[in-house]
Design a protein that fits this description.
With 350 residues, the protein is an alpha/beta fold. It is built from 12 helices and 12 strands. The strands form 2 sheets. A 6-stranded mixed β-sheet has the order 3-2-1-4-5-6, sandwiched between helices. The protein is globular. Bound molecules: NADP nicotinamide-adenine-dinucleotide phosphate.
């Protein structure tokens, strides 16, 4: 993407993550190597807006109604994300060269089959747009198809925020480890469960720890998606698909959640210098990839054992560089918004 090119953004989903992204984009605008503007927004219940000349996304992030951002000069507001995409792509084609369409997909994760994210990404790539997303659904349920579709369309599909909230895992391997093969990985990829296990170590029961996370806004009202390991399984499927060239979905990941953890045993392990952690792992053996999420008692010298509360991390077993570890000390929505921004900037590179 040449530096003089302008990037037109279409936001599919305009909830907490997309709004933080808009705010971050505004705050860091001067540091970006290209100009951007938001030309479309789609939501489920708050309407859609298209404005080929650009709309006031920061105002929308502050609460201006999405419907009020629509430019009536381009007809009625789009009915849904698909119509918005088609009309935004057509407006870009009419405007000619020098504009690149990037779709920022942040609709809810579809735990059954990755929808609607999978369908949105497919439609965006087919329209020739690049895609950045924090939604786990597309890469967890349809990686080989979407990867190939992006290649066929000459478009890019990026999702750094879907797994480790901005910790650069996919870009690390893609951009800085040419020719290196990842043979296996182990990681701590879910904030809620890691926080819960740290609280259990401090003397809480599972239910008390989950209630604390919910009161702090870290865990969802229904925490079973985290506690039973489903969120970690989705992230494990993405990591296995991309890093190990697998073709799996979260349903293919062997999964044991936190309900099997004995709090007394976890505290005894901690007292003895070890730590019980929910470990996501996968490896290639005899030509096929197996993946698992399960509580594991780790020795104290294991780098993953030292990741407490909101810390996360990943250990990559590579063929040329041995084991590479990457960790971060905290997680949060700003980190996810940053991941989207970093992915957007990465599109600028050849
Ligand atoms: N929150 C985090 O810290 C975090 C971290 C990492 C990844 N993620 C992922 O990022 C994504 C967004 O999360 P979020 O917290 O921003 O979610 P959110 O606040 O629930 O927002 C979701 C947005 O998607 C819209 N939407 C739902 N279905 C749609 C459809 N079919 N077409 C168009 N728009 C649709 C919703 O519309 P309405 O406004 O009308 O409801 C809403 O604007 C999710 O996939 C999530 O798993 C989130």
């Amino acid at each position: 993407m040449p530096a003089t090119e302008r990037v037109d953004l279409v936001l599919l989903g305009f909830g907490g993550v997309a709004k933080r992204f808009v705010e971050l984009l505004e705050a860091r605008r001067a540091r970006l190597p290209f100009a951007t503007r938001v030309i479309g927004v789609a939501t489920a219940r708050h309407g859609c807006a298209l404005s080929p000349a650009g709309l006031d996304a920061p105002a929308a992030a502050r609460g201006k109604a999405v419907a009020a951002c629509h430019d009536a000069a381009c007809g009625r507001p789009p009915r849904d994300a698909f119509e918005l995409l088609a009309r935004a792509a057509a407006a870009g084609a009419e405007a000619g060269a020098g504009r690149r369409l990037v779709v920022v997909e942040n609709t809810p994760y579809g735990a059954a089959d990755g929808r609607p994210g999978v369908d949105h990404v497919r439609a965006a790539l087919d329209a020739g747009a690049d895609v950045v997303t924090a939604n786990k659904g597309p890469a967890a349920f349809a990686w080989p198809e979407l990867r190939d579709r992006a290649a066929a369309a000459g478009a890019r599909f990026r999702f750094e925020g879907a797994v480790l909230d901005g910790l650069p895992v996919f870009s690390l391997v893609r951009d800085t480890l040419p020719g290196v093969a990842v043979r296996a990985f182990r990681g701590i990829v879910n904030t809620t469960t890691n926080h819960v296990l740290s609280a259990i170590d401090r003397g809480r029961t599972l239910d008390e720890a989950v209630a604390e996370m919910q009161a702090a806004g870290i865990a969802e009202a229904d925490a079973s998606h985290d506690v039973d390991g489903w969120d970690a399984a989705a992230k494990t499927a993405i990591l296995a698909n991309v890093l190990l060239d697998a073709d799996m979905t979260p349903h293919d990941v062997s999964r044991t959640g936190l309900r099997t953890v004995d709090p007394a045993a976890a505290r005894a392990a901690r007292a003895a210098g070890r730590a019980v952690k929910l470990v996501a792992s996968a490896g290639r053996r005899n030509g096929s990839v197996t993946a698992a999420v399960r509580p594991v008692e780790l020795p104290g010298h294991d780098p993953l054992a030292r990741l407490d509360d909101t810390a996360k991390g990943l250990s990559l077993d590579t063929d040329l560089l041995g084991t590479i570890q990457i960790t971060k000390s905290a997680s949060g929505p700003d980190h996810t918004a940053y991941a989207l921004l970093a992915d957007l900037v990465s599109l600028h590179r050849p």
